[in-house]
Design a protein that fits this description.
Layout (H helix, E strand, L loop, with lengths): L4 H25 L4 H6 L1 H11 L14 E4 L5 H11 L39 H14 L6 E6 L6 H12 L5 E7 L8 H4 L5 H8 L2 E6 L3 H13 L6 E6 L22 H10 L4
Parallel strand pairs: 1-2, 2-3, 3-5, 4-5
Helix pairs in contact: 1-3, 1-4, 1-10, 3-4, 3-9, 5-6
The structure holds thiamine diphosphate (TPP) and magnesium ion.
């Protein structure tokens, strides 16, 4: 179902605010990952604000949908979205990566309300998400598991094991979303580990693939609807075309901004580009 013009404007506004706030938070913390956080903004917004069934007043609700951020280093954007959704106060963003914070450098299921899986080590998320999906099926709920992958994440062999297993176990309640920004920590994916035709690869494993503009909330929502509507038992991946560092010209496509402290003048420039003061 398409979004109303009003809803689309609201969600686009949220994304603008999330980007500005994450840049401010990372500047204040002088540590953390700007590139991958800016890249995943619309994906998380589409899930938490439109498509996933979650309840901030009951984060452990047994039949909630699960969202697994396999690329756990993008935690700042996840936290900002969770805070807006009401899982914890937005004020708490100031504590990112501080001693005794609930907002650690990578998502922690033990510390942060709303986080469904601790992640950070790449390659582990999809396998765990598959296990969660199979467990939910045994519990007779119709909950979904959404797993957000990154380029560096899919370099890991365990992702492809999970890929095969998901087909064998007919995990049609597992939906992967590939934040496909084509850049990793130390360079372009094409140079580090060329990925070729990912749609052909996932299809060959037996997955359904839906290509989509990963910075268009409405397109993401439509892709997720489509993924949920298939009547058969194949897992689905949304191939979300994204840009690492999206929204800040000097960060876009630059692996140098994967995990780097933001200096004063860069902070000013970034905030100005994102429409802030
Ligand atoms: C197993 C493992 N190896 C190395 C790292 C260090 N590391 C953190 S992020 C990253 C690159 C991630 O790239 P990508 O998945 O494309 O994320 P994005 O571009 O969305 O930031 C690496 C190599 C890690 N977290 N886990
Ligand atoms: Mg990447």
């Amino acid at each position: 179902m398409s979004l109303t013009a009003e809803r689309k404007t609201y969600l686009d506004g949220l994304c603008g605010k999330f980007r500005r706030d994450v840049i401010d938070t990372l500047y204040a913390a002088q540590t953390g990952h700007p590139g991958g956080s800016l890249s995943v903004c619309e994906i998380l917004t589409a899930l938490y604000f439109e498509k996933a069934r979650v309840d901030p007043s009951n984060p452990q609700k047994p039949d909630r949908d699960r969202i697994v951020l396999c690329k756990g280093h993008a935690a700042p954007m996840l936290y900002r979205v969770l805070a807006e959704k009401g899982f914890f106060p937005v004020e708490e963003m100031k504590t990112l990566r501080q001693l005794n914070t609930r907002l650690q450098g990578h998502p922690s299921i033990k510390h942060t309300p709303g986080v469904d899986l601790s992640t950070g080590p790449l390659g582990t998320g999809l396998s765990a998400a598959l296990g969660m999906a199979l467990g939910l099926r045994l519990s007779n709920t119709n909950a979904k598991v959404y797993a957000i992958l990154g380029d560096g994440d899919v370099n890991e062999g365990t992702v492809w094991e999970a890929c095969m297993s998901a087909v064998k176990f007919k995990a049609n309640n597992l939906i992967a979303i590939y934040d496909w920004n084509k850049v990793q920590l130390d360079g372009k994916s094409a140079d580090i580990m060329p990925q070729g035709d990912m749609a052909a690869k996932f299809s060959a494993f037996g997955w359904r693939c839906i290509p989509c503009d990963g910075h268009n909330v409405e397109a993401l929502c439509e892709a997720i609807d489509k993924a949920n509507a298939y009547p058969d038992d194949r897992p689905v991946i949304v191939l979300a075309d994204t840009v690492k560092g999206k929204g800040v010209s000097f960060m876009e496509g630059q692996n140098a901004w994967h995990g780097k402290a933001i200096g004063e003048s860069d902070h000013k420039r970034a905030v100005a580009e994102l429409g802030g003061k």
